[in-house]
Amino acid sequence: MSGTQAGRRRHDLWVRAPRVLKSSSFRLALLYMSLLSISVGILLSFIYWSTAGFMDRQTDATIGAEIQGLAEQYRERGLPGLSTVIQERITRDPAGAGLYILADADLKPVLGNLDRWPAGFLDTSGWMRFRLRNRGPDHAEEHAARGQVFRLRGDLLLLVGRDVRDLERTRRVILDALTWGLAMTAALALLGGWVLSQRVLRRLEAINQTSREIMEGDLSRRIPVGGSDDDFDQLAAGLNQMLARIESLMAGVRQVSDNIAHDLRTPLTRLHTKLELLRAELGDTHPARAIAEQTIADAEELLTTFNALLRIARIEAGGRRAAFAPVDLVPLVEDLAELYEPVAAEREQYLTVSAPRDAWVIGDRDLLFQALGNLVDNAVKYTPEGGRIDLRLAGIEQAILIEIADNGPGIPEQLRAEVFRRFFRADHSRSTPGSGLGLSLVQAVIQLHGAAIELLDNAPGLRVRVRLERGAAPETDPAQPTAPTGQPG
Q1: Chosen CATH of 319-469 out of 3.30.565.10, 3.40.190.10, 3.40.50.10420, 3.40.50.2020
Q2: How far is the CA of 257 from the CAs of 243, 306, 310, 313, 432, in angstroms?
Q3: What is the pTM for the complete model shown?
Q4: pLDDT tens, 350-395?
Q5: Class of domain 231-316
Q6: Is 128 helix (H, G, I), strand (E, B) or coil?
Q7: 37 exposure class (CB count in 10 Å sphere: 0-12, 13-18, 19+)
Q8: Which residues of 261-271 are buried (b: 16+ CB within 10 A; e: fewer)?
Q9: Alpha carbon distance 206, 423 (integer Å)
């Protein structure tokens, strides 16, 4: 694998890592890992308790057997006999694990293989745990020991114990093995959860990617099927059947719309033409001329509404994405201002433009011009005489912001989500011409470009903010001459 491919794989892994950590499958794997770790921990704790407890009980049994033997010697032969037996055991195994010390009332050693009475905790049954220094070359090292204390006649104390350093080492080895086993179990469970989550996330991402492409208008897209006939494949097969049915229904609706376009647009156009001919023949003084003009206006409104509905349907179908190309919004906004400036001047409104040197996006220039034109037209229409309309462009990181602000009546906050519905008109706008489709068309164009639109309070008035993803400027063909700055090309 080349360095570039390895770097790309590391980058992809780094990008996917937060999504994997947030996924429900990884959280489920974490829950499974926790339950598995707790179960393994309980099992290993039982094994440790059983093993270490067995060794402790074996040590205590050995000490008990020695004490029983010494007690018999003490009963039969008294203190001299007891002292002789202890000395024989020490002589027979000088470096063994057996510990013996006979001390007086002041805890001064009388005999045994310990040079002093050990310091340790003595429980109610006479058992003691204490620490011993090595009797070998390294006297600095300490290790554990365990014994039992008996009081003899004459205020003498006898301690019989065992050096349990080997037991401690064995217990430490077992504990380390169990700890590493638990850690490896948790690590393997976590790794398995990560791998499983990535696999599930890839399948879900394929479904999400297909859904996004369908929402962008490509109804022919289908969810890929892995061929394993697992739950995801069955889900994908069911969704694909549903998508096929939706595509069939949408194709039927589109066919009906096309039929309406061919069957109704032509009669409406002929009706409009005949009405204009009728108006021309009636003359300026004919009593029916006003009725003819009103009928022509109604026919034009019908044609406008009809064309707007068809245009919105075609935009929402996503067919215009094939015409996407780099678009510089600066000249587009300047053309909008030039188009609406005379209309604003007639109403004594101030139309200002603020734009950077360039603002490139990827999209359909005609649709963007129409959508932004609808927003500017609304601002001019609803801003009172002497009002102000600001058209601003700004670049932020990977996006271009377009703001159209006015100081008109604005839109109440509770209605801002409703104004994008078709034929919706607020109360204050019912007296003005229009069909209530302008903002619906704007929303369709914005969604086609994968952009976002917000309606904000301008205090007073309305501020419309459109956020478009920044695009790269087209590369200049070196074979074509470039016009100097400030001169037509």
Answers
A1: 3.30.565.10
A2: 20, 10, 7, 9, 29
A3: 0.49
A4: 999 888 888 889 888 888 888 898 899 888 888 888 889 999 988 8
A5: mainly alpha
A6: strand
A7: middle
A8: beeeeeeeeee
A9: 37
